[in-house]
Design brief:
The chain is of the alpha/beta class. The protein has six helices and ten strands; from the N terminus they run E-H-E-E-H-E-H-H-E-E-H-E-E-E-E-H. It has one domain: Rossmann fold (3-Layer(aba) Sandwich). Helix content is 26%, strand content 25%.
């Protein structure tokens, strides 16, 4: 292969089938349903939970299964434009189990000098990087966990994907969007105004109390957990104007969008 220096700058694209996206949140909020609407999606099913969705899926309940599915996708000759790994949490467990079995240990820490951790991380990084480099979209689904963070000035709780730290850092460094699926409550409109509606939203910008991000700059800070609205925002020619954050550092709920009827 001959390498030449470029003569023109690259052009940012609004094609979702070229992006790598991490979607995480609590169970049954609609992560898989949302991911299923990405262009021509193919699921690598790493845990049960797709029974109520009509999707194309490949059962990948071991690391060799996932590697084989990756080879089939990389070979081309298929109609799929997006690979969805559901969930990335289980995929990492399969990766760890595979490396441990390969080296005849029960736990990666059993290998001397940190070799086990290095083997797992290298394999994890190798496969995810290869998938992300394909001319397809890549969607990674994870659960959410609250982690206690200690700083010099005190402690606080941060919601983040439930991957172990060593796996999460690889994922966070490679994705274009980190979408945190959440719920908020707001006063019920109409009638006597009593009661509240539970609203499902996505959070897309960095915040001290949760992990989120949007490298594309096209998404508002908070938006409905609705794929049609998400795709419309993403395809816009200009980056979206973010919604203002609460000055107290708490999650903004006052301007939350209407509820949507999405089930996982």
């Amino acid at each position: 292969m001959t390498i030449a220096l470029p003569k023109a700058k690259t052009t940012p694209t609004a094609d979702l089938a070229t992006k790598t996206t991490l979607i995480y949140g609590p169970p049954k909020i609609g992560k898989s349903t949302f991911a299923a609407q990405f262009p021509d999606a193919l699921f690598f099913e790493c845990e049960p939970g797709l029974g109520e969705l009509s999707v194309y899926k490949v059962p990948t309940y071991s690391w060799p299964d996932l590697l084989e599915a990756c080879k089939l996708v990389a070979a081309g000759g298929h109609p799929f434009k997006t690979v969805v790994i559901d969930t990335i949490d289980n995929a990492f467990k399969y990766c760890t189990d595979h490396i441990n079995a390969k080296h005849n240990v029960e736990y990666e820490g059993d290998l001397a000098h940190g070799k086990g951790w290095a083997f797992v991380k290298n394999e994890w990084h190798r496969v995810l990087t290869r998938l992300a480099s394909l001319p397809m979209g890549l969607v990674l689904i994870s659960h959410a966990v609250d982690k206690r963070i200690e700083t010099r000035t005190g402690e606080y709780t941060k919601t983040q994907p439930s991957l172990p730290d060593r796996a999460r850092q690889v994922v966070l460094g490679m994705v274009d969007m980190i979408l945190y699926c959440d719920t908020v409550s707001r006063p019920r409109s109409g009638g006597d105004g009593k009661g509240v509606d539970i609203v499902r939203v996505m959070r897309t910008k960095p915040h001290p109390t949760y992990e989120a991000g949007d490298r594309t700059g096209r998404l508002p800070e908070v938006m409905p957990l609705d794929f049609a609205g998400f795709a419309k925002c993403f395809a816009s020619a200009k980056p979206a104007s973010p919604m203002p954050s609460s000055s107290s550092g708490q999650r903004s709920v006052a301007s939350a969008p209407p509820a949507t009827s999405i089930t996982e």
